[in-house]
Amino acid sequence: MRTKINIIVLLLLMAISFTFCEKPKELYYQPMPEEGFYLVGEAIGIDSVNLESLLKSTSVLNADSLQVPREGFYSMFIFISSSNQGFSVKQQSGDQLFNWGGSLALVEGETNVWKASLIKEGANLTVDADGLYYLAIDMNLSELFLFKIDSWILDGSSVVNSGTNLPQTSTTPDSTVWFNDEVSLQTGYLKLKFHQFDLYSISGDSVNIMTYIGKNLSVPVYGGDSVKLMFDEISNYQIKIKYDKVAGYSGKNNLPPYDPRIHTYSLIGSAFYQDNDPNNPPTAWNVDFWLDFDTNSDTLNGIYNFKYNAMNFISGGEFKIRLDGIWNNGEFGYKQVNYITGDVENITDAGGNYGNFKVVNDAVYDVTFTFDAVTFETTVDFSPLKK
Q1: Which residues are registered as beta bridge partners of 369?
Q2: CATH number of the domain enclosing 282
Q3: Among 9, 100, 265, 360, which lies 20 to 30 A Cα-Cα from 352?
């Protein structure tokens, strides 16, 4: 009997020992969400406040200072379903989480634009039809705007038949496609709009939402410049635009590839000598020095180089790269070029309203202007010969 009691006592002691030796449970710290505004709801497929749902501040087109950041303004392209659970704007402020909601109503005179006045702790917002929308929120005005993108309006001098559009052919939460295989085009400019106007006013005439894509029909850019098209004659073409939830915009078409050689390019400014001869007086924005096309350019991959060799640059002078020998045709200044290479310390931004290049010290350069017809990016290289 005593033996049994001893065994029981031993087992109890072992149990107590294991209890005291057990590794304490780790405590996981759940960080508080970043302060800001979040889009959450069944209708957009996001069920919680997290980085995926955090709204990023974006820019609007301001009538006074062109495209500038606007605090409290957020926008995005987003698929919204007609779920009656809707969606709302959540605001994380310190350790407090607020809900902003309201009721969407069709804007008078519009067919695809809705507006809601946001109310703290208001009801979730709902839409009547599934689809891709452009959503814009101005928390300074406590207003939310929705544009439903059922089609894109083709606009510009390149469009032969006004009113031509790209109708939507499919839409899912992950991607939306618009397609038209009979777009009649001619030489000119083209962009695509999800509203009849390029700019939609949200606060009188002071702040406007851009409503178009452009720059390149293969990789369209929201708010991008009009696409320049060149054709021998009027013809019909196919244009397909796709919006992907992750990758953004892409496009396919059977348009002939863009060839930058349709333009001429020149150096012009006060940074050079007449006839490029240092024995002559400086130019005064009245002489074009034409860049020659480099026949060794990798045109198969869309790379076009234009060169001017042994150009004498004058310290303190300013200049630009000009298209076709005329102004207001898309000339390239310091800020209009994507990349500047070579002797970059000697070629600076002149600042001011004109966006010129400025020369720090006298120099002689081989100048190469490169146009990438695939990405539509430009590079200017200043290769020094001597200083």
Answers
A1: 306, 380
A2: 2.60.40.3620
A3: 265
What's the pLDDT tens digit per position in 36-68?
Answer: 889 999 999 998 888 878 887 776 654 444 555
Structure tokens given for 326? 């005329």
Residues β-bridged to residue 377: 372
Of 225, 217, 187, 221, the residue nearest 332 (C-alpha): 225
How confident is the model over 346-367, as pLDDT tens digits?
A: 999 998 888 999 999 999 999 9
Angle 243-300-212 from CA coordinates, rounded to 5°: 25
Closest CA to 364 of 340, 387, 341: 387
Task: Specify the pairing of strand 96-101 against strand 119-120.
Answer: antiparallel
128 and 202 share one domain:
no
Q: Is residue 380 part of a domain?
A: yes
Give the count of beta carbons closer than 10 Å to the beta carbon of residue 109. Answer: 6
Query: Can you tell me the distance from the alpha carbon of 170 to that of 186, in angstroms, rounded to the nearest whole number?
Result: 28
Cα–Cα distances in angstroms (integers) from residue 128 to residues 116, 124, 327, 342, in the given order: 14, 13, 49, 56
- Given a contact cutoff of 8 angstroms between Cβ atoms, the answer to whether 164 and 109 are in contact is no
Do 181 and 277 share a domain, yes or no?
no
In the numeric block, the tokens 């700019």 are attached to 199
This prediction's pTM: 0.67
C-beta of residue 272 within 8 angstroms of C-beta of residue 319: yes
Domain count, the chain: 3
Longest dimension (CA), the chain: 123
How does DSSP assign 115-141, residue by residue?
Answer: EEE-EETPPPB--SS-EEEEEEEETTT
